[in-house]
């Protein structure tokens, strides 16, 4: 009987379950309930977390019961909770963990918080964006819950079948989660774009509840928060910008990279860079685009002096329009570019700066 089941599953190219093995059994805790672990900044929910909320709408029967978890301290947390309560129609409840413990994004206390909330709520799915925060917290939370996370999801077929990229995005793998509950996911924000306009309607406002932290064990001995630095400029955030202008190693030095920054300023665009440019010290690593950097999908991506290494293409291949300028006609970047120009970027960029109108 077992061999027949295996043969039928192989014939249908579908995964199969061993009904007698609890390891592979599908869980049934609170069918359709989802917890979204969200980031907030300046009193508002960050765009990647809004994309995670969009992903919940792809789960069957999940839209009716979605809880959003926020943590931190101070007025900005409560402003973010008020914003969350009306920012997305799928949210039914906002859970707020107010404590100085969560003032900084340390993974250990956040993972314990997710574990505690899951133990109380019994959610079927826990979702976060595949950002630096999500990549840091969710694997630890999965370890505490003794489940295997499904990471960097780009598509959701049903409640347990997901699509994720492999081989630096050159292939897509369809996986079926057959472990114990909950199903933990990190999603690629560019694959689940958030609505352009928030709901922001008092009639659709979700309830806000405080998380009881009386039994929470802080245990912060494994790591401690030192400081956080950010670049203060008027350019859009790289992960959410409509236009991104990137430069590669061909710019030769940090002084020349200012050409990219000047062009980005004139276009109202964000600045990106390849790993080679970052490693050479031209720009800080938060501007790196690629498999080990940020994943972007702007409406326009302009690449100057970018050869098109597979690791870089993995971070920008979902851009709507890709424009490449390179003096090597055989550069791999031209294989993915919608528009390509073989030329010297030190001639092309100054000409663009001269002919483009000033940003209004």
UniProtKB/TrEMBL annotation:
It is found in: Mitochondrion matrix. It holds the Pfam family ETF. Keywords: Electron transport, FAD, Flavoprotein, Mitochondrion, Transit peptide, Transport. Its cofactor is FAD. One of its GO terms (molecular function) is flavin adenine dinucleotide binding. One of its GO terms (biological process) is fatty acid beta-oxidation using acyl-CoA dehydrogenase. Belongs to the ETF alpha-subunit/FixB family. Heterodimer of an alpha and a beta subunit. This is Electron transfer flavoprotein subunit alpha.
């Amino acid at each position: 009987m077992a061999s027949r089941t295996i043969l039928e599953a192989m014939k249908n190219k579908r995964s199969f379950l061993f009904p007698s093995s609890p390891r592979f059994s599908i869980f049934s805790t609170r069918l359709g309930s989802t917890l979204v672990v969200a980031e907030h900044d300046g009193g508002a929910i960050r765009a990647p977390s809004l994309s995670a909320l969009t992903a919940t709408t792809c789960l069957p029967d999940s839209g009716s019961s979605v809880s959003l978890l926020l943590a931190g301290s101070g007025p900005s947390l409560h402003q973010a909770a008020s914003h969350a309560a009306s920012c997305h129609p799928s949210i039914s409840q906002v859970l707020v963990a107010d404590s100085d413990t969560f003032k900084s994004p340390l993974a250990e206390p956040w993972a314990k918080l997710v574990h505690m909330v899951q133990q109380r709520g019994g959610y079927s799915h826990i979702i976060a964006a595949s950002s630096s925060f999500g990549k840091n917290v969710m694997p630890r939370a999965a370890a505490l819950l003794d489940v295997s996370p499904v990471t960097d999801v780009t598509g959701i077929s049903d409640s347990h079948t997901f699509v994720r990229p492999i081989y630096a995005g050159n292939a897509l793998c369809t996986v079926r989660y057959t472990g114990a509950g909950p199903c933990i996911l990190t999603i690629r924000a560019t694959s689940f774009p958030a609505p352009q306009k928030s709901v922001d309607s008092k009639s659709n406002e979700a309830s806000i509840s405080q998380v009881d932290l009386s039994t929470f064990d802080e245990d912060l001995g494994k790591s401690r928060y030192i400081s956080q630095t950010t670049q203060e400029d008027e350019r859009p955030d790289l992960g959410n910008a409509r236009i991104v202008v990137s430069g590669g190693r061909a710019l030769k030095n940090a002084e020349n990279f200012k050409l990219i920054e000047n062009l980005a300023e004139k276009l109202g665009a964000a600045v990106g860079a390849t790993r080679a440019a970052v490693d050479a010290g031209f720009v800080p690593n938060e501007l790196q685009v690629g498999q080990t950097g940020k994943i972007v999908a702007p409406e326009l991506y302009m690449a100057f002096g970018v050869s098109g290494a597979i690791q870089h293409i993995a971070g920008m291949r979902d851009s709507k329009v890709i424009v490449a300028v390179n003096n090597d006609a055989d550069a791999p970047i031209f294989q993915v570019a919608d528009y390509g120009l073989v030329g010297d970027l030190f001639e092309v960029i100054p000409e663009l700066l001269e002919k483009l109108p000033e940003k209004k």
